[in-house]
Specification:
378 residues, arsenite methyltransferase activity, single chain, 4-stranded mixed sheet, 31% helix, alpha/beta, 16 strands
């Protein structure tokens, strides 16, 4: 296809997605799959409280189920891709505090207008002197056009939105550009078990349901390396079920999973060696235990041996101040035992994690980080 044809196809997909979320779906009951209602981790108390302080109209215009929230947010600058009516932005604006800032970008003008209506309301509710939230009407694969500068954000979040964009590499490239060194993309999305055939990729309902645009999960690792990110770190994963016989027939042997990954942009500091770490504790909402991803949980005061990639991330990101680091073999002050890393235990496959999770007993609690957190126009 010529560049013009490719652009035309992308524009058509954007229109279809806007129509699906603006006209076809009125409530979450209209969904044909559970891609948007999968369960993730329990919501910490401080996040539940932040959500309760968001204005009622903003919350009503939000049709998602989760909030993609990394840890250690105080004073951070955060960019929310696909911010919709602004619910997540207003919750996060409380968590970053008055010295932090949250920017939301969304392609649906009506949703951005709703979000902007309540800037002063939330500023006054939180007791801030000035608003620490900005909303932009624009496309997540065209952040430069929206005026977002190089290396201007500590964290970029996204809740099941990247799969709706035809050019994933362009989105990730833009995110890499706007992140500071040591910054992180923390995002929930839908992934496929294989390269999708054209019949799925061009199906309008499957696009709207977050399946038609799903990336083959191994391609995320390829794109991350190509762009310059550290290897993706898998956080949570849940299998997606299809509640429609016709869609099941089209999908065939392909399986889908909803997964949260974290991607770090680190400075070039040379090779980092495996080391011992001790979590100092104290991160808001994670004072005693930090579940960093599916492979590493750090308990306050306990020695954990980490691999080269994990050591590089912890030493060169906003988490550095929360850990003690020592070469392997050194004695570290610790109140707990030592967890020795075995590389064979590292899980990168979201389908394996989801299947393992399915075997464990479920608890009926509120959830965060579920994919998708859709922000549809009414």
């Amino acid at each position: 296809a010529t560049p013009r044809d490719a652009e035309s196809q992308k524009a058509d997909i954007r229109k279809e997605v806007q129509n699906y979320y603006g006209q076809v779906l009125k409530t979450s009951k209209d969904l044909q799959t559970n891609a948007c209602v999968t369960v993730a981790r329990p919501v910490p108390k401080h996040i539940r409280e932040a959500l309760q302080n968001v204005h009622e109209e903003v919350t009503l215009r939000y049709y998602g189920c989760g909030l993609v929230t990394p840890e250690c947010l105080e004073n951070c600058w955060i960019l929310d891709l696909g911010s919709g009516s602004g619910r997540d932005c207003y919750a996060l604006s409380q968590l970053v505090g008055e010295k932090g800032h949250v920017t939301g970008i969304d392609m649906t003008e009506g949703q951005v207008e709703v979000a902007k209506k309540y800037l002063d309301y939330h500023m006054e509710k939180y007791g801030f002197q000035t608003s620490n939230v900005t909303f932009i009407h624009g496309y997540i694969e065209k952040l430069a056009e929206a005026g977002i500068q190089n290396e201007s954000y500590d964290i970029v979040i996204s809740n099941c939105v990247i799969n709706l964009v035809p050019d994933k590499e362009q989105v990730l490239q833009e995110v890499y550009r706007v992140l500071k060194h040591g910054g992180e993309l923390y995002f929930s999305d839908v992934y496929a078990s294989l390269e999708l055939p054209e019949e799925i990729k061009t199906h309008k309902v499957l696009w709207g349901e977050c399946l038609g645009g799903a990336l083959y999960w191994k391609d995320l690792f390829f794109l991350a390396q190509k762009i310059g990110f550290c290897p993706p770190r898998l956080v949570t994963a849940n299998l997606i079920t299809i509640q429609n016989k016709e869609l099941e027939r089209i999908i065939g042997d392909c399986r889908f999973v909803s997964a949260t990954f974290r991607l770090f942009k680190l400075p070039n500091t040379g090779p980092t060696e495996r080391c011992q770490t001790v979590y100092n504790g104290g991160i808001t909402g994670h004072e005693k235990q930090l579940i960093f991803d599916a492979n590493f949980t750090f308990k306050e005061g306990e020695i954990v041996e980490v691999d080269e990639d994990t050591a590089a991330v912890l030493k060169n990101s906003r988490f550095a101040q929360d850990f003690l680091f020592r070469p392997i073999g050194d004695k570290l002050p610790s109140s707990g035992g030592c967890f020795v890393l075995e590389s064979k235990d590292i899980i990168t496959d979201p389908f394996k994690l989801a299947e393992d999770s399915d075997k464990k007993p479920k608890c009926a609690s509120s959830v965060a980080g579920g994919c998708c957190g859709k922000k549809r126009s009414c």
